[in-house]
Amino acid sequence: MKKRLLNILERDASLSINSLATRLNCSEDAVRLLINELIAERQIIGYKAILPESNTAETVEAVIEVKIAPRREGGFDTPAKRIARFPEVTDLALVSGSCDLLVMVKGKSLHEVAAFVAEKLATIDGVISTATTFQLKKYKVSGRLLEEGENTERLVVCP
Fold first, then answer.
1. pLDDT tens column, 80-93
2. Buried b / exposed e along 97-111 (16+ C-beta atoms within 10 A)
């Protein structure tokens, strides 16, 4: 039942306890208990509303590729944990490919994000290089299209 509850909440975390109980065919108390267990086990870490860009237009978001020189003790984890503590950082992941870490940040302006990179991120021991890409427009967030009424027909393929 935990897996089913997690799947339902991943699709729509705004459902009421009553709705969840109905979908899971159990009592509301059982759902509350299960949610509290999942939170205690850190299988549920938080909930987030997805807002259209019009509500977040006063922020600048960027994706920063970071190359790290891993240390013998702690590898990539030590610099990653340090980077994660900055309030500007919204998401952080160890990745494969041309960089080691992908860091997503938010700021009030391009200058604020640039200052974060130059003054905070680039000065961390082990950071070799950074490459910043600013987000201009979002079309889809967490599996949700941000604009309604989009044409879902297949694109015409020209010979």
1. 999 999 999 999 99
2. eebbbebebbbeeee
